[in-house]
Amino acid sequence: MNSEELEPIDAERCQGESRESSFMTFGIPSFIRCSQKPRWIAISVRSGTFYGAMSLCDECKKVCEIRMPDISFQKLGAVVNETP
Ligand SMILES: [Zn+2]
User: Fold this and answer.
1) 49-56 and 40-46 strand pairing
2) pTM of this prediction?
3) What spacing in Å lies between the alpha carbon of 80 and ligand 1's midpoint?
4) What is the CA radius of gyration of the chain?
């Protein structure tokens, strides 16, 4: 296992971040952590090498699919049991 450098997957909260600028930051973009419940695990594999995984909600998954086409997705329930 070489997973010590990876951030653990947060099954309770989406790990997506979006860059938002608002009047509160005077136009300086800041990263805001998504607060939704995750439904997907995004797995980044490039040239057969595992780079990392993170939990994502439906909306962040859509953004991720457009920006990072080399990412594959797994339903979160397949890894962490959801309450029936
Ligand atoms: Zn999200």
Assistant:
1) antiparallel
2) 0.69
3) 17
4) 14
**What is the CA(36)–ligand 1 centre distance, in A?**
5
Which whole-number Å values give the CA distances from 52 to 30, 44, 60, 76, in the listed order?
Answer: 23, 5, 16, 15
How many Å lie between the centroid of ligand 1 and the Cα of residue 47?
Answer: 26
**Residue 33 Cα to ligand 1 middle (Å):** 8
Can you tell me the distance from the alpha carbon of 1 to that of 21, in angstroms, rounded to the nearest whole number? Answer: 39
Condensed to tens digits (0 to 9), the pLDDT of residues 43-65 reads 988 778 887 899 999 999 998 89
Centroid of ligand 1 to alpha carbon of 57 (angstroms)? 4
